[in-house]
Amino acid sequence: MSPGEFPYTRGIHADMYRRRLWTMRQYAGFGTAQEANERYHYLLSQGTTGLSVAFDLPTQMGYDADHAMAAGEVGRVGVAISSAADMEVLFRGIELEKVSTSMTINSTASILLSLYVLVARRQGADTRKLNGTIQNDILKEYIARGTYIYPPRPAMRIITDLFAWAGREVPEWNTISISGYHIREAGSTAVQEVAFTLANAIAYIQAAIDAGLPVDSFAPRLSFFFNAHNDFFEEIAKFRAARRLYAHLMRDRFGALNPKSHQLRFHTQTAGATLTAQQPDNNVVRVALQAMAAVLGGTQSLHTNSRDEALSLPTAESALLALRTQQVIAHESGVAREPDPLGGSVYVERLTDEIAAGAEAYLAQIDAMGGAIAAIEQGYIQREIQNAAYEYQRGIESGKTVIVGVNQFAQTGGTPIPIFKLDPALEAQQVERLRAVRASRSASQVEAALQNLESAARGPDNLLPHILASCEAYATVGEISDRLRRVFGEYQENAG
What we know:
Blueprint: E1 23-28, H1 33-45, E2 50-54, H2 57-60, H3 84-90, E3 100-104, H4 109-122, E4 131-134, H5 139-145, H6 152-169, E5 173-174, E6 176-179, H7 181-185, H8 190-210, H9 215-218, E7 222-228, H10 232-253, H11 259-262, E8 266-270, H12 282-296, E9 301-303, H13 316-332, H14 346-369, H15 372-377, H16 380-398, H17 425-440, H18 443-458, H19 464-472, H20 477-488
Parallel strand pairs: 1-2, 1-9, 2-3, 3-4, 4-5, 6-7, 7-8, 8-9
Protein backbone atom coordinates (compact mmCIF):
# COMPACT_ATOMS: atom_id res chain seq x y z
CA MET A 1 0.00 0.00 0.00
CA SER A 2 1.10 3.56 -0.72
CA PRO A 3 0.99 6.50 1.70
CA GLY A 4 -2.54 7.85 1.98
CA GLU A 5 -4.15 4.43 1.40
CA PHE A 6 -5.89 2.20 3.95
CA PRO A 7 -4.63 1.01 6.44
CA TYR A 8 -2.30 4.06 6.37
CA THR A 9 0.77 2.18 7.60
CA ARG A 10 2.89 4.44 5.39
CA GLY A 11 1.17 7.69 6.38
CA ILE A 12 -2.28 9.27 6.29
CA HIS A 13 -1.56 11.55 3.31
CA ALA A 14 -0.34 10.53 -0.14
CA ASP A 15 2.19 13.36 -0.28
CA MET A 16 2.82 13.79 3.48
CA TYR A 17 5.25 16.69 4.10
CA ARG A 18 5.59 17.62 0.44
CA ARG A 19 2.22 19.35 0.77
CA ARG A 20 2.63 20.73 4.26
CA LEU A 21 5.20 20.29 7.02
CA TRP A 22 4.19 18.97 10.40
CA THR A 23 3.08 21.60 12.93
CA MET A 24 5.97 22.72 15.12
CA ARG A 25 4.08 22.94 18.39
CA GLN A 26 6.33 23.88 21.30
CA TYR A 27 4.87 23.10 24.74
CA ALA A 28 5.16 26.04 27.13
CA GLY A 29 3.60 27.64 30.17
CA PHE A 30 4.74 28.79 33.59
CA GLY A 31 3.96 31.30 36.32
CA THR A 32 1.06 33.65 35.74
CA ALA A 33 -0.83 34.16 32.51
CA GLN A 34 1.22 37.28 31.76
CA GLU A 35 4.57 35.45 31.91
CA ALA A 36 3.29 32.59 29.74
CA ASN A 37 1.80 35.04 27.22
CA GLU A 38 5.21 36.66 26.79
CA ARG A 39 6.80 33.24 26.11
CA TYR A 40 4.09 32.45 23.50
CA HIS A 41 4.72 35.69 21.64
CA TYR A 42 8.45 34.92 21.69
CA LEU A 43 7.98 31.40 20.29
CA LEU A 44 5.58 32.63 17.59
CA SER A 45 8.10 35.29 16.56
CA GLN A 46 10.75 32.57 16.15
CA GLY A 47 8.71 30.34 13.83
CA THR A 48 6.57 28.13 16.06
CA THR A 49 3.51 27.21 14.00
CA GLY A 50 1.22 26.10 16.84
CA LEU A 51 0.84 26.80 20.54
CA SER A 52 0.84 24.11 23.22
CA VAL A 53 -0.25 25.13 26.71
CA ALA A 54 1.17 23.61 29.90
CA PHE A 55 -1.00 24.18 32.98
CA ASP A 56 0.15 24.02 36.58
CA LEU A 57 -0.92 21.15 38.84
CA PRO A 58 -3.62 23.09 40.74
CA THR A 59 -5.32 23.97 37.43
CA GLN A 60 -5.01 20.36 36.26
CA MET A 61 -6.59 19.01 39.45
CA GLY A 62 -9.36 21.57 39.91
CA TYR A 63 -7.92 23.67 42.74
CA ASP A 64 -7.79 27.45 42.82
CA ALA A 65 -4.49 29.19 43.50
CA ASP A 66 -5.44 29.99 47.11
CA HIS A 67 -6.49 26.43 48.01
CA ALA A 68 -4.35 24.71 50.65
CA MET A 69 -3.58 21.89 48.19
CA ALA A 70 -2.12 24.42 45.72
CA ALA A 71 0.51 25.85 48.06
CA GLY A 72 3.97 25.75 46.50
CA GLU A 73 2.67 24.48 43.14
CA VAL A 74 1.10 27.60 41.63
CA GLY A 75 2.67 28.30 38.25
CA ARG A 76 5.46 25.80 38.84
CA VAL A 77 5.06 23.18 36.10
CA GLY A 78 2.75 25.23 33.91
CA VAL A 79 0.67 28.38 33.83
CA ALA A 80 -1.86 29.07 36.59
CA ILE A 81 -5.40 29.59 35.26
CA SER A 82 -8.11 30.27 37.83
CA SER A 83 -10.83 32.03 35.80
CA ALA A 84 -11.77 33.70 32.53
CA ALA A 85 -9.72 36.72 33.59
CA ASP A 86 -6.53 34.64 33.44
CA MET A 87 -7.45 33.07 30.10
CA GLU A 88 -7.98 36.52 28.59
CA VAL A 89 -4.45 37.53 29.62
CA LEU A 90 -2.92 34.22 28.49
CA PHE A 91 -4.00 34.83 24.88
CA ARG A 92 -3.77 38.62 24.81
CA GLY A 93 -2.58 39.76 21.40
CA ILE A 94 -2.98 36.30 19.85
CA GLU A 95 -5.83 35.89 17.35
CA LEU A 96 -7.31 32.54 18.27
CA GLU A 97 -9.11 32.16 14.95
CA LYS A 98 -5.70 32.20 13.21
CA VAL A 99 -3.61 29.95 15.48
CA SER A 100 -3.78 26.26 16.32
CA THR A 101 -3.69 25.64 20.08
CA SER A 102 -3.17 22.41 21.99
CA MET A 103 -4.03 22.30 25.69
CA THR A 104 -2.58 19.54 27.85
CA ILE A 105 -5.41 19.25 30.34
CA ASN A 106 -7.56 16.30 31.36
CA SER A 107 -9.76 16.32 34.48
CA THR A 108 -10.62 19.98 33.95
CA ALA A 109 -10.51 19.85 30.14
CA SER A 110 -14.17 20.79 29.77
CA ILE A 111 -13.58 23.94 31.86
CA LEU A 112 -10.43 25.02 30.01
CA LEU A 113 -11.99 24.48 26.59
CA SER A 114 -15.00 26.53 27.72
CA LEU A 115 -12.65 29.33 28.84
CA TYR A 116 -10.85 29.19 25.48
CA VAL A 117 -14.12 29.40 23.53
CA LEU A 118 -15.26 32.26 25.75
CA VAL A 119 -12.06 34.25 25.08
CA ALA A 120 -12.34 33.57 21.34
CA ARG A 121 -15.93 34.85 21.30
CA ARG A 122 -14.86 38.01 23.11
CA GLN A 123 -12.18 38.49 20.43
CA GLY A 124 -14.94 38.33 17.82
CA ALA A 125 -13.73 34.98 16.43
CA ASP A 126 -15.98 32.54 14.62
CA THR A 127 -15.80 29.61 17.04
CA ARG A 128 -16.68 27.19 14.24
CA LYS A 129 -13.25 28.02 12.80
CA LEU A 130 -11.25 27.45 15.99
CA ASN A 131 -8.56 24.86 15.45
CA GLY A 132 -6.69 22.91 18.10
CA THR A 133 -6.71 20.00 20.50
CA ILE A 134 -7.75 19.37 24.08
CA GLN A 135 -6.00 16.39 25.63
CA ASN A 136 -9.09 15.30 27.60
CA ASP A 137 -7.70 11.76 28.10
CA ILE A 138 -8.69 10.79 31.62
CA LEU A 139 -8.05 7.04 31.43
CA LYS A 140 -4.28 7.44 31.16
CA GLU A 141 -4.39 9.58 34.31
CA TYR A 142 -5.54 6.53 36.30
CA ILE A 143 -2.91 4.42 34.54
CA ALA A 144 0.20 6.55 34.54
CA ARG A 145 -0.04 10.16 35.61
CA GLY A 146 -2.40 10.79 38.52
CA THR A 147 -4.08 14.15 37.82
CA TYR A 148 -7.58 12.69 38.10
CA ILE A 149 -10.46 14.12 40.12
CA TYR A 150 -13.60 12.03 39.61
CA PRO A 151 -14.05 8.24 39.36
CA PRO A 152 -13.67 6.80 35.85
CA ARG A 153 -17.32 6.40 34.92
CA PRO A 154 -18.55 9.97 35.64
CA ALA A 155 -15.29 11.24 34.14
CA MET A 156 -16.20 9.39 30.94
CA ARG A 157 -19.59 11.09 30.96
CA ILE A 158 -17.91 14.52 30.95
CA ILE A 159 -15.80 13.44 27.98
CA THR A 160 -18.75 12.21 25.91
CA ASP A 161 -20.68 15.39 26.76
CA LEU A 162 -17.70 17.35 25.45
CA PHE A 163 -17.65 15.26 22.25
CA ALA A 164 -21.32 16.03 21.59
CA TRP A 165 -21.12 19.74 22.45
CA ALA A 166 -17.89 20.41 20.57
CA GLY A 167 -19.22 18.65 17.47
CA ARG A 168 -21.87 21.38 17.29
CA GLU A 169 -19.99 24.41 18.62
CA VAL A 170 -16.33 23.93 17.61
CA PRO A 171 -16.44 21.34 14.80
CA GLU A 172 -12.81 21.85 13.74
CA TRP A 173 -11.51 21.14 17.25
CA ASN A 174 -9.86 17.82 18.14
CA THR A 175 -11.93 16.81 21.14
CA ILE A 176 -9.43 14.36 22.62
CA SER A 177 -5.75 13.52 22.31
CA ILE A 178 -5.53 9.90 23.40
CA SER A 179 -2.15 9.75 25.01
CA GLY A 180 0.48 7.05 24.93
CA TYR A 181 3.10 9.63 25.86
CA HIS A 182 2.58 9.45 29.62
CA ILE A 183 2.22 5.67 29.50
CA ARG A 184 5.71 5.52 27.96
CA GLU A 185 7.08 8.09 30.41
CA ALA A 186 5.84 5.85 33.24
CA GLY A 187 8.06 3.05 31.92
CA SER A 188 6.07 1.08 29.35
CA THR A 189 7.57 -0.62 26.32
CA ALA A 190 6.80 0.53 22.79
CA VAL A 191 4.35 -2.36 22.37
CA GLN A 192 2.55 -1.44 25.60
CA GLU A 193 2.40 2.21 24.57
CA VAL A 194 0.53 1.28 21.40
CA ALA A 195 -1.68 -1.35 23.04
CA PHE A 196 -2.79 0.60 26.09
CA THR A 197 -3.36 3.77 24.08
CA LEU A 198 -5.58 1.92 21.62
CA ALA A 199 -7.37 0.14 24.48
CA ASN A 200 -8.24 3.55 25.91
CA ALA A 201 -9.35 4.72 22.47
CA ILE A 202 -11.71 1.76 22.22
CA ALA A 203 -13.22 2.70 25.59
CA TYR A 204 -13.80 6.32 24.55
CA ILE A 205 -15.29 5.37 21.20
CA GLN A 206 -17.62 2.79 22.74
CA ALA A 207 -18.70 5.25 25.45
CA ALA A 208 -19.56 7.84 22.81
CA ILE A 209 -21.51 5.29 20.76
CA ASP A 210 -23.34 4.15 23.91
CA ALA A 211 -24.24 7.81 24.56
CA GLY A 212 -25.97 7.88 21.16
CA LEU A 213 -23.30 9.50 18.99
CA PRO A 214 -22.82 7.95 15.51
CA VAL A 215 -19.19 6.93 15.15
CA ASP A 216 -18.53 9.07 12.07
CA SER A 217 -19.95 12.13 13.85
CA PHE A 218 -16.99 12.31 16.25
CA ALA A 219 -14.25 9.92 15.09
CA PRO A 220 -12.69 12.32 12.53
CA ARG A 221 -11.86 14.70 15.43
CA LEU A 222 -10.12 12.10 17.59
CA SER A 223 -6.36 12.54 17.80
CA PHE A 224 -3.45 10.83 19.52
CA PHE A 225 -0.28 11.78 21.38
CA PHE A 226 2.78 9.53 21.31
CA ASN A 227 6.29 9.49 22.74
CA ALA A 228 9.46 9.43 20.64
CA HIS A 229 11.93 7.35 22.64
CA ASN A 230 15.54 6.33 22.09
CA ASP A 231 15.39 3.21 19.88
CA PHE A 232 15.33 4.94 16.50
CA PHE A 233 13.93 2.21 14.25
CA GLU A 234 11.60 0.77 16.89
CA GLU A 235 9.98 4.17 17.29
CA ILE A 236 9.43 4.59 13.55
CA ALA A 237 7.87 1.13 13.40
CA LYS A 238 5.71 1.91 16.44
CA PHE A 239 4.00 4.80 14.69
CA ARG A 240 3.41 2.72 11.57
CA ALA A 241 1.93 -0.17 13.60
CA ALA A 242 -0.37 2.16 15.54
CA ARG A 243 -1.80 3.61 12.32
CA ARG A 244 -2.42 0.16 10.86
CA LEU A 245 -4.11 -1.22 13.97
CA TYR A 246 -6.30 1.85 14.41
CA ALA A 247 -7.50 1.82 10.80
CA HIS A 248 -8.65 -1.79 11.14
CA LEU A 249 -10.26 -1.13 14.52
CA MET A 250 -12.28 1.77 13.18
CA ARG A 251 -13.40 0.04 10.00
CA ASP A 252 -13.84 -3.53 11.16
CA ARG A 253 -14.82 -3.19 14.84
CA PHE A 254 -16.75 0.07 14.86
CA GLY A 255 -18.01 0.15 11.28
CA ALA A 256 -16.78 3.68 10.55
CA LEU A 257 -17.38 4.60 6.91
CA ASN A 258 -15.67 7.99 6.65
CA PRO A 259 -11.99 7.50 5.64
CA LYS A 260 -11.06 10.31 8.05
CA SER A 261 -12.41 8.14 10.87
CA HIS A 262 -9.85 5.47 9.91
CA GLN A 263 -6.85 7.81 10.01
CA LEU A 264 -4.79 7.94 13.19
CA ARG A 265 -3.56 11.54 13.47
CA PHE A 266 -1.00 12.15 16.17
CA HIS A 267 1.21 14.66 17.92
CA THR A 268 4.64 13.53 19.12
CA GLN A 269 6.82 14.78 21.94
CA THR A 270 10.38 13.66 22.43
CA ALA A 271 10.94 11.55 25.54
CA GLY A 272 11.34 13.55 28.72
CA ALA A 273 12.26 10.39 30.64
CA THR A 274 15.40 9.97 28.50
CA LEU A 275 16.83 13.40 29.36
CA THR A 276 19.71 13.39 31.82
CA ALA A 277 20.90 15.97 34.32
CA GLN A 278 24.43 14.66 33.72
CA GLN A 279 26.08 16.14 30.62
CA PRO A 280 22.87 17.97 29.57
CA ASP A 281 24.29 18.91 26.16
CA ASN A 282 23.92 15.21 25.25
CA ASN A 283 20.17 15.83 25.40
CA VAL A 284 20.38 17.95 22.26
CA VAL A 285 21.55 14.88 20.34
CA ARG A 286 18.92 12.63 21.91
CA VAL A 287 16.15 15.06 21.04
CA ALA A 288 17.34 15.43 17.44
CA LEU A 289 17.33 11.66 16.89
CA GLN A 290 13.95 11.24 18.57
CA ALA A 291 12.47 14.08 16.51
CA MET A 292 13.80 12.53 13.29
CA ALA A 293 12.18 9.22 14.24
CA ALA A 294 8.85 11.00 14.73
CA VAL A 295 9.12 12.66 11.33
CA LEU A 296 10.10 9.42 9.59
CA GLY A 297 7.18 7.80 11.42
CA GLY A 298 4.75 10.33 9.92
CA THR A 299 3.75 12.60 12.81
CA GLN A 300 1.30 15.48 12.25
CA SER A 301 2.82 17.76 14.87
CA LEU A 302 5.90 17.72 17.06
CA HIS A 303 7.32 19.14 20.27
CA THR A 304 11.05 18.90 20.84
CA ASN A 305 12.20 18.94 24.47
CA SER A 306 14.89 21.31 25.66
CA ARG A 307 18.32 20.22 26.84
CA ASP A 308 17.81 21.56 30.39
CA GLU A 309 14.49 19.93 31.25
CA ALA A 310 16.06 17.35 33.57
CA LEU A 311 17.15 20.33 35.67
CA SER A 312 14.36 22.91 35.42
CA LEU A 313 11.75 24.43 33.17
CA PRO A 314 13.50 25.36 29.91
CA THR A 315 15.12 28.74 29.50
CA ALA A 316 14.07 30.82 26.50
CA GLU A 317 17.44 30.03 24.87
CA SER A 318 17.02 26.28 25.31
CA ALA A 319 13.44 26.42 24.03
CA LEU A 320 14.69 28.25 20.94
CA LEU A 321 17.39 25.62 20.30
CA ALA A 322 14.72 22.89 20.58
CA LEU A 323 12.60 24.69 17.98
CA ARG A 324 15.62 25.19 15.72
CA THR A 325 16.20 21.41 15.90
CA GLN A 326 12.84 20.87 14.20
CA GLN A 327 13.52 23.58 11.66
CA VAL A 328 16.88 22.06 10.68
CA ILE A 329 15.23 18.66 10.20
CA ALA A 330 12.44 20.21 8.13
CA HIS A 331 14.48 22.50 5.92
CA GLU A 332 18.00 21.08 5.73
CA SER A 333 17.82 17.28 6.00
CA GLY A 334 15.75 16.56 2.89
CA VAL A 335 13.54 14.18 4.87
CA ALA A 336 10.36 15.98 3.79
CA ARG A 337 10.92 15.33 0.09
CA GLU A 338 9.70 11.71 0.21
CA PRO A 339 6.34 10.72 1.79
CA ASP A 340 7.70 7.54 3.45
CA PRO A 341 11.49 7.36 3.12
CA LEU A 342 11.79 4.03 5.00
CA GLY A 343 8.87 2.29 3.31
CA GLY A 344 10.04 -1.09 2.03
CA SER A 345 12.87 -1.42 4.53
CA VAL A 346 12.91 -5.09 5.50
CA TYR A 347 13.96 -4.22 9.05
CA VAL A 348 11.33 -1.51 9.55
CA GLU A 349 8.56 -3.66 8.05
CA ARG A 350 9.52 -6.58 10.32
CA LEU A 351 9.54 -4.37 13.40
CA THR A 352 6.16 -2.94 12.40
CA ASP A 353 4.67 -6.42 12.16
CA GLU A 354 6.17 -7.45 15.52
CA ILE A 355 4.86 -4.38 17.35
CA ALA A 356 1.41 -4.77 15.79
CA ALA A 357 1.25 -8.45 16.80
CA GLY A 358 2.35 -7.69 20.36
CA ALA A 359 -0.20 -4.90 20.71
CA GLU A 360 -2.98 -7.09 19.33
CA ALA A 361 -2.22 -9.73 21.98
CA TYR A 362 -2.56 -7.10 24.74
CA LEU A 363 -5.82 -5.80 23.23
CA ALA A 364 -7.26 -9.32 23.22
CA GLN A 365 -6.32 -9.73 26.90
CA ILE A 366 -7.91 -6.37 27.82
CA ASP A 367 -11.07 -7.22 25.86
CA ALA A 368 -11.31 -10.49 27.78
CA MET A 369 -11.16 -8.52 31.04
CA GLY A 370 -14.07 -6.32 29.97
CA GLY A 371 -12.19 -3.41 28.40
CA ALA A 372 -9.81 -0.68 29.48
CA ILE A 373 -11.87 0.66 32.39
CA ALA A 374 -12.18 -2.80 33.93
CA ALA A 375 -8.46 -3.44 33.35
CA ILE A 376 -7.61 -0.13 35.06
CA GLU A 377 -9.95 -0.83 37.98
CA GLN A 378 -8.28 -4.23 38.42
CA GLY A 379 -4.80 -2.65 38.25
CA TYR A 380 -3.75 -4.82 35.29
CA ILE A 381 -2.45 -2.08 33.01
CA GLN A 382 -0.67 -0.32 35.87
CA ARG A 383 1.11 -3.55 36.89
CA GLU A 384 2.25 -4.27 33.34
CA ILE A 385 3.81 -0.81 33.08
CA GLN A 386 5.43 -1.08 36.51
CA ASN A 387 7.00 -4.41 35.59
CA ALA A 388 8.35 -2.98 32.32
CA ALA A 389 9.76 0.06 34.13
CA TYR A 390 11.48 -2.21 36.65
CA GLU A 391 13.09 -4.28 33.90
CA TYR A 392 14.29 -1.16 32.10
CA GLN A 393 15.85 0.22 35.28
CA ARG A 394 17.54 -3.13 35.94
CA GLY A 395 19.07 -2.90 32.47
CA ILE A 396 20.51 0.54 33.24
CA GLU A 397 21.87 -0.51 36.61
CA SER A 398 23.49 -3.65 35.18
CA GLY A 399 25.01 -1.70 32.28
CA LYS A 400 23.16 -3.77 29.68
CA THR A 401 21.29 -0.61 28.64
CA VAL A 402 23.84 2.14 28.01
CA ILE A 403 22.96 5.73 28.95
CA VAL A 404 25.82 7.94 27.77
CA GLY A 405 27.11 10.14 30.56
CA VAL A 406 25.27 8.15 33.25
CA ASN A 407 26.39 4.51 33.35
CA GLN A 408 29.08 4.84 30.69
CA PHE A 409 31.30 7.72 29.59
CA ALA A 410 30.55 9.57 32.83
CA GLN A 411 32.66 12.49 33.94
CA THR A 412 32.94 14.72 36.97
CA GLY A 413 32.96 18.48 36.98
CA GLY A 414 32.11 20.31 33.78
CA THR A 415 30.64 23.77 33.26
CA PRO A 416 27.11 24.09 34.65
CA ILE A 417 24.50 25.42 32.23
CA PRO A 418 22.15 28.31 33.04
CA ILE A 419 18.79 27.11 34.35
CA PHE A 420 15.39 28.75 34.58
CA LYS A 421 14.33 30.05 38.00
CA LEU A 422 10.70 30.79 38.72
CA ASP A 423 10.05 34.00 40.65
CA PRO A 424 8.57 32.90 44.03
CA ALA A 425 6.51 36.12 44.12
CA LEU A 426 4.36 34.88 41.23
CA GLU A 427 2.26 32.63 43.48
CA ALA A 428 1.26 35.54 45.71
CA GLN A 429 0.47 37.64 42.63
CA GLN A 430 -1.81 34.90 41.28
CA VAL A 431 -3.64 34.58 44.61
CA GLU A 432 -4.13 38.35 44.77
CA ARG A 433 -5.47 38.41 41.20
CA LEU A 434 -7.88 35.56 41.97
CA ARG A 435 -9.27 37.33 45.01
CA ALA A 436 -9.74 40.53 43.00
CA VAL A 437 -11.81 38.59 40.44
CA ARG A 438 -13.99 37.13 43.18
CA ALA A 439 -14.54 40.60 44.67
CA SER A 440 -15.52 42.18 41.34
CA ARG A 441 -18.02 39.61 40.01
CA SER A 442 -21.70 39.10 40.78
CA ALA A 443 -21.89 36.49 43.53
CA SER A 444 -25.56 35.79 42.74
CA GLN A 445 -24.84 35.14 39.06
CA VAL A 446 -22.00 32.77 39.97
CA GLU A 447 -24.15 30.85 42.44
CA ALA A 448 -27.04 30.56 39.96
CA ALA A 449 -24.73 29.22 37.24
CA LEU A 450 -23.09 26.73 39.60
CA GLN A 451 -26.46 25.54 40.88
CA ASN A 452 -27.62 24.93 37.31
CA LEU A 453 -24.41 22.96 36.69
CA GLU A 454 -24.96 20.84 39.79
CA SER A 455 -28.56 20.11 38.75
CA ALA A 456 -27.40 19.09 35.26
CA ALA A 457 -24.78 16.78 36.78
CA ARG A 458 -27.49 15.06 38.83
CA GLY A 459 -29.55 14.52 35.68
CA PRO A 460 -28.97 13.64 32.03
CA ASP A 461 -28.33 17.10 30.56
CA ASN A 462 -25.11 17.89 28.71
CA LEU A 463 -22.77 19.60 31.16
CA LEU A 464 -20.85 21.81 28.72
CA PRO A 465 -23.42 24.63 28.29
CA HIS A 466 -23.60 24.93 32.08
CA ILE A 467 -19.80 24.90 32.45
CA LEU A 468 -19.55 27.62 29.80
CA ALA A 469 -22.23 29.71 31.57
CA SER A 470 -20.31 29.35 34.85
CA CYS A 471 -17.12 30.51 33.13
CA GLU A 472 -18.96 33.52 31.69
CA ALA A 473 -20.03 34.50 35.20
CA TYR A 474 -16.34 34.29 36.29
CA ALA A 475 -16.78 31.18 38.40
CA THR A 476 -13.33 29.74 39.05
CA VAL A 477 -11.85 26.44 37.96
CA GLY A 478 -11.92 25.29 41.58
CA GLU A 479 -15.54 26.30 42.15
CA ILE A 480 -16.75 24.51 39.02
CA SER A 481 -14.72 21.39 39.91
CA ASP A 482 -16.07 21.43 43.47
CA ARG A 483 -19.68 21.44 42.27
CA LEU A 484 -18.96 18.36 40.20
CA ARG A 485 -17.14 16.79 43.16
CA ARG A 486 -20.37 17.16 45.16
CA VAL A 487 -22.17 14.99 42.64
CA PHE A 488 -19.49 12.59 41.37
CA GLY A 489 -17.14 12.31 44.35
CA GLU A 490 -13.37 11.86 44.08
CA TYR A 491 -11.45 8.84 42.84
CA GLN A 492 -9.34 6.93 45.36
CA GLU A 493 -6.68 4.73 43.80
CA ASN A 494 -6.75 1.04 44.69
CA ALA A 495 -3.27 0.52 46.10
CA GLY A 496 -3.59 -3.22 45.50
